[in-house]
Amino acid sequence: MAHKKGQGSTKNGRDSNPQYLGVKLYGGEIAKPGAIIVRQRGTPIKPGYLVRKGSDDTLFSVGLGKVVFRGRTVHVNPLDESAPRPAYLKGTAN
Length: 94
Hints:
Blueprint: E1 22-23, E2 30-31, E3 36-39, E4 46-47, E5 51-53, E6 59-61, E7 65-70, E8 73-78
């Protein structure tokens, strides 16, 4: 009779790396150009003013300003008062 268990193969010896998805900059925080705002799969949150979408659906800032979430859209409200801003951001405070 054997005294040690045989070295059989296992079916559950693997694990995948975490995706680190989610909101990285919340509403009211300052976003620098190139800062990642949201990492997501698909587009549940859409890019708005001064925000662009990467090839993996990541939303990132293209200007300096304050992050504003309005519905399912994220905008960056410029800190510079003289910078042009769309009508839907004119009512938001910096």
